[in-house]
Design a protein that fits this description.
Blueprint lengths: L6 H23 L5 H10 L1 H24 L3 H24 L1
Helix pairs in contact: 1-3, 1-4, 2-3, 3-4
Length: 97
């Protein structure tokens, strides 16, 4: 059986699930806008960036906790690295664009 405890799996899970949360939030709250208009709205209203990034990061915190408690430390580290990259990207988008 394959080893399910590796960094690549953690990075993949930590990157894909917040993206699904991002698009879910878009379809739930802003489906009347095109995706381009939604991105423009994000660049004009910086508080939306925070409102959007918090659920994505909370999802990664839950996943991190599940994998740490399951003794899948390498996968949890990958999720943590993806969370840091996601948080830094949100900060850069919020303050520079």
């Amino acid at each position: 059986m394959r080893n399910k405890d590796n960094y690549i799996l953690g990075l993949t899970i930590g990157a894909v699930l917040p993206l699904l949360s991002f698009f879910g939030y878009y379809y739930w709250k802003f489906s009347l806008f095109t995706f381009g208009e939604f991105i423009e709205l994000l660049s004009q209203n910086k508080s939306l960036v925070t409102a959007l990034s918090i659920p994505c990061l909370l999802l990664n915190i839950v996943l991190f906790t599940i994998f740490i408690n399951g003794r899948k430390d390498k996968t949890a580290k990958g999720i943590f690295i993806a969370s840091i990259i996601y948080a830094l990207s949100a900060l850069i988008f919020k303050f520079l664009f």
